[in-house]
Structure prediction request, 277 residues.
Amino acid sequence: MTQPEIHVDVSRHEGFASRELVFEIKDLSVFYGPFKAVRDITLDIGKSAITALIGPSGCGKTTFIRCLNRMNDLIETARVEGEIKYHGVNLYDKKVDAVEVRRRIGMVFQKPNPFPKSIYDNVAFGPKISGFKGNMDELVEQSLQKAALWDEVKDRLKESAMGLSGGQQQRLCIARCVAVQPDVILMDEPCSALDPIATGRIEDLMQDLKEEYSIVIVTHNMQQAARVSDMTAFFTAEVNEQQDRRTGVLVEYDKTENIFQTPTDERTENYVTGRFG
Prediction:
């Protein structure tokens, strides 16, 4: 099979080229047993920016994002090849502590997953197990403020987090994430289970958070990617019809406005205009 050309035209986004890099990914492939789920991904992710990953189902977006905080390590059959540098450090070096990686590179999942504890204890949980010695009340308040949730819950901190609405639960999960003071926040379709109003609040929150954190988001919602992200990577899947397997590949990576207005690859144009996917 002829491998597709990947378009990463730095000349079209010189502002990004000068941005400090958080991740440098080169020739990344991910296997589940003998199956290659993602092939030869090469791209850089900049600091204090929102990077969106878009593409049809089965194109490897979630598999890829889980490599950025080594969550694929938790899957027994998973194997990662290639290189991911995080602030210049090889993320998969044997000397690197995967637990510390996941503290610095937090993750918010598709469905809100608060712990069956109080709102306060949800936010305090991570700092407690990390050995935080400061003022916990202040940290909880600051984290809820950053997640734009404080005003809604400040009088009910001892109540169960399970009583919050879906949108509030997702913002609580974001507060829980920022409470351990990460450098990067990964978001895997964080709004797919939310209504439009709650989605709008999360999108507004992301714009505020990128002032302090670098954000990588997987989304099936192209309008969301166009609204919130600075950079967009379009993935697609190569289909092996004999084995009914799909291998994800990166097609194009550029400034978001370029991806949606003047893509350089026909496959990108067909996807963002709704001709396939």
Q: What stands out?
A: The CA atoms of residues 147 and 172 lie 7 Å apart. The beta strands are 21-32, 35-46, 50-54, 78-86, 89-90, 105-108, 184-188, 214-218, 231-240, 245-255. The radius of gyration is 19 Å.
